[in-house]
């Protein structure tokens, strides 16, 4: 059943427009768009309402120790790459049914910019 769910999630991401990831995302613009996300997410390892997003790109979903993820996200089998982030930020509940994240970023360019910004959040 879990494998079927993972396949359905992958198909859903494609259907939702994983191809809409913009290669030309602007991290400076993304930082400004991310300001509305900062009520729930830190750009560090700090967990708030949502998990900290330091090193999020490339990280398996639901994998930060000490954060109480939904069972749906923990068991999703997703990795936060650009297409997955794009689909999830566009419609979180459509990608991971049962996620607690309800906010979305509907505009393609805004998502591309935020993803470009998230890629800069790495430990130095």
Automatic annotation (TrEMBL):
Residues spanning the signal sequence: 1-23
Keyword Protein biosynthesis appears in the UniProt entry: no
Positions of the Cytochrome c domain: 25-122
Classification via InterPro entries: Cyt_c-like_dom (IPR009056), Cyt_c-like_dom_sf (IPR036909), Cyt_c_1A/1B (IPR002327)
Bilayer-crossing regions: none
Domain of life: Bacteria
Keywords: Electron transport, Heme, Iron, Metal-binding, Signal, Transport
Molecular function terms from GO: electron transfer activity; heme binding; metal ion binding
Gene3D superfamilies: Cytochrome c-like domain (1.10.760.10)
PANTHER family: CYTOCHROME C
Protein name, as recorded: Cytochrome c family protein
